[in-house]
From TrEMBL, chain A:
Protein name according to UniProt: High-affinity branched-chain amino acid transport ATP-binding protein LivF
GO molecular function ontology, one term from the record: ATP binding
InterPro entries documented for this protein: AAA+_ATPase, ABC_transporter-like_ATP-bd, ABC_transptr_urea_ATP-bd_UrtE, BCAA_Transport_ATP-bd_LivF, P-loop_NTPase
Source taxonomy: Bacteria, Bacillati, Bacillota, Bacilli, Bacillales
Top-level taxon of origin: Bacteria
Membership in a protein family: Belongs to the ABC transporter superfamily.
Keyword entries, A-Z: Amino-acid transport, ATP-binding, Nucleotide-binding, Transport
Residue span(s) of domain ABC transporter: 2-231
The keyword Coiled coil belongs to this UniProt entry's keyword annotation: no
Keyword Transport among UniProt keywords: yes
Gene transcribed to yield this protein: livF
Alphabetical list of Pfam families matching this protein: ABC_tran
UniProtKB/TrEMBL annotation, chain B:
Topology relative to the membrane: Multi-pass membrane protein
Keyword set, alphabetical order: Amino-acid transport, Cell membrane, Membrane, Transmembrane, Transmembrane helix, Transport
Family from the record: Belongs to the binding-protein-dependent transport system permease family. LivHM subfamily.
Name of this protein: High-affinity branched-chain amino acid transport system permease protein LivH
TM ranges: 12-35, 42-60, 66-88, 152-170, 203-223, 235-259, 266-287
């Protein structure tokens, strides 16, 4: 459903990603691993369109999105939970969630029950400003905001970064339940090996801006981990 | 007692005019961070729009209708300034987002061009706009204190604009989109909001409100092509003193400047009063650089 072909991207003069090719199938949880600074976030941004691709293609459900704006990609069904959450600080929690509906106009202005149910803590904070929430709460809000548009593909960029263990467990449960429902594919960039092993179907390891290794859960053995992921 | 009431009223009146001219800027500068030096000229456009409506009523409407021209002039001024703001945004401002110095110079140039355009169309001398007769005179309270209807009308108009802006920005769908884009443009785009359309609408609304301010200024005296330059500094003062980005801050900024201006002018002279007000503003901003109402949030720390 999502296919990235020979993607090259970077900031200004510097090239961060070279010749990246990966695929996400419908309903699958694909994990993106790699040490710090190998280009995981850059790849996420290029898939969302925040960063323009220099070369290569991003296709989604058969359509070439390489030249499309982020908003267009969102309307086609890609949800994005960026690194650092990017909550609107001066908007209330409820308003933040309502903005998740912008990608699906005409569906009415109701946040789908399925998005809220996964984060029962959110409705108790509807009136508070997004910026006043703790990091973990903001992460849950960003996640729910992306789910409000009922995306067919969800991009999760380090959802567990700097989050307390109990919320990490909640997020793990949410990812599992999305997987069980089967309607949404997930591309997950994450540092925690233990976390991705517990939810992932297929794995890509980035090194120096290129895909260095790919394979299923059983192939991700100690040798691979030692070679590409140990610091 | 009479003197206190009268000075207080004068203070509120000055504040209301300051607020009206600063409200549009609170959007274009406060929310969008565009240093729009042509804001004064948008006020001028609103004023001339009122003049045009007056002349149209004189020429084409029965004289019994003339008194109501001003009611038509307010929305007309808004629409004209709105459309010019839309044009300005589409052709110039949108290339200058995030470049404050460039936008300052470019909009100043636009301001000069608009002034010259007004001079070409309407002539260099000031033109008078006759106030409708129902705004002449005043309300007498406490025996001999007269509150002019025109000033009361401007205060009411400001309140109306303020309520309308509040409802639009904080209660409507498009206002929510607008705040989202101003707070985090990239993320708003990722959620499917058309940032281009929001930018254009926001700038145009700020311009339109400047038009309403210009329309109201025709009540205070004759208008000329350079009327905007008298008000641009005050408008920026109000927004900066109030705290950039908050509507309520602009209200406090206008009240602070307007009331202290009246007090200082009463104690000293008109020009010395103005100097003292500016000194106070400079001193205050040294102490609190963020203005009266600063945005505070965990995510901004």
């Amino acid at each position: 459903m999502l296919a990235v072909r020979q993607l090259e991207a970077g900031y200004g003069e510097s090239v961060i990603l070279r010749n990246v090719t990966l695929e996400v199938q419908r309903g699958e949880v694909v994990c993106l691993l790699g040490r710090n600074g190998v280009g995981k976030t850059t790849l996420m941004k290029s898939i969302m369109g925040v960063l323009k691709a220099r070369k290569g293609h991003v296709t989604y459900s058969g359509a070439d999105l390489t030249k499309r704006a982020p908003g267009e990609r969102a309307r086609r069904g890609i949800g994005y939970v960026p690194q650092g959450r990017e909550i609107f600080p001066q908007l209330t929690v409820f308003e933040n969630l309502l903005l998740g509906l912008e990608a699906t106009p005409g569906k009415g202005r109701i946040i789908p029950e399925s998005a809220i149910m996964k984060f029962p803590v959110l409705p108790t904070m509807y009136g508070r400003n997004g910026g006043d929430l703790s990091g973990g709460q903001q992460q849950q809000l960003a996640f729910a905001r992306a789910l409000a548009s009922e995306p067919a593909l969800l991009l999760l960029d380090e959802p567990c970064e700097g989050i307390q263990p109990s919320i990490v467990d909640d997020i793990r449960d949410v990812i599992r339940s999305i997987k069980a429902e089967g309607g949404t594919a997930i591309l997950l960039a994450e540092q925690s090996l233990e976390f991705v092993k517990s939810v992932g179907d297929y794995f890509y390891i980035l090194e120096k801006g290129s895909i260095a290794w790919e394979g299923g859960l059983e192939a991700l053995d100690d040798e691979v981990i030692r070679r590409y992921l140990t610091v | 007692m009479d003197v206190i009431v009268l000075q207080l009223f004068n203070g509120f009146s000055v504040s209301s005019i300051l607020l009206l001219i600063a409200l549009g800027l609170a959007i274009t500068f406060g929310l969008m961070k565009v240093i729009n030096m042509a804001h004064g000229e948008l006020i001028m456009i609103g004023a001339y729009s009122a003049y045009v409506v007056q002349n149209l009523f004189l020429s084409y409407m029965p004289s019994s209708m003339f008194n109501w021209y001003f009611i038509a002039a307010i929305p007309f001024s808004f629409i004209v300034a709105f459309l010019i703001g839309l044009l300005l945004e589409a052709t110039l401002i949108r290339f200058l987002y995030g470049r404050p110095l460039d936008s300052l110079l470019a909009t100043w140039g636009i301001g000069l061009m608009l002034q010259q355009l007004a001079r070409t169309i309407f002539g260099a001398p000031n033109v008078g706009v006759t106030s409708p007769s129902w705004l002449n005179g005043g309300m007498t309270i406490m025996g001999d204190v007269v509150l002019p209807y025109k000033r009361l009308f401007i205060i009411a108009l400001v309140c109306l604009c303020l309520v309308a802006m509040y409802v639009y920005i904080y209660r409507s769908h498009s206002g929510r989109r607008m705040r989202a884009v101003m707070q985090n443009r990239e993320m708003a785009a990722c959620l499917g909001i058309s940032t281009r359309r929001v930018d254009a609408m926001t700038f145009a609304i700020g311009s339109g409100i400047a038009g309403i301010a210009g329309c109201a200024l025709t009540l205070m005296g004759p208008i000329g092509p350079s009327i905007g330059t008298y008000y641009i500094v005050d408008a920026f003062m109000v927004v900066v003193l109030g705290g950039v980005g908050k509507l309520i801050g602009t209200v406090f900024g206008a009240l602070g400047i307007g009331l202290s201006n009246t007090v200082f002018e009463y104690w000293t002279t008109a020009s010395l009063g103005k100097v003292l007000v500016f000194l106070c503003i400079v001193a205050f901003l040294q102490w609190k650089p963020m203005g009266l109402v600063a945005m505070r949030s965990r995510s901004l720390d």
